[in-house]
Amino acid sequence: MTYPFFATPYPDRKDAGPIFGAEQRAIVGVMVRNPGKVLSMDELSAGLTPMTRTPRRMETLIDGIRSALGPDAVVDVPRRGWRYVPATAI
Fold it and tell me: Band of the pLDDT at 16, cuts 50, 70, 90?
């Protein structure tokens, strides 16, 4: 079976970059459009299915994003949501 480049389970190259599922891509898209802004669960999950809109599922998706982009890329803001912190260019 041939997978599209963004869904390949085992990338052939070491520099293939982070591999996200559809839900994570939607969340990262919202975060990238609003860098530095605190986003609530409702704002991040606006385009996702109702089954995804649970606090536990959102934490799991955010943890996956952190593991791909680095632990400092997404910051928890207690009782408010999450904030995407873009990497600064050196």
Answer: low
Instruction: Confirm whether 14 is domain-assigned.
Output: no
Q: Provide CB contacts within 8 A for 80, sequence distance 6+.
A: 38, 40
Please give the model's pTM, rounded to 2 decimal places: 0.74
Domain that holds residue 45: 22-84
Q: What is the CATH number of the domain that holds 62?
A: 1.10.10.10
Which pair of tokens denotes residue 19? Answer: 């591999």
At 28-84, the pLDDT tens digits run 999 999 999 999 999 998 878 787 788 898 999 999 999 988 889 999 999 999 999
Domain count, the chain: 1
Residue 12 lies in a domain: no
Residue whose tokens read 């791909």: 68
Q: What order of strands is seen across the sheet that includes strand 38-39?
A: 38-39, 81-84, 74-77
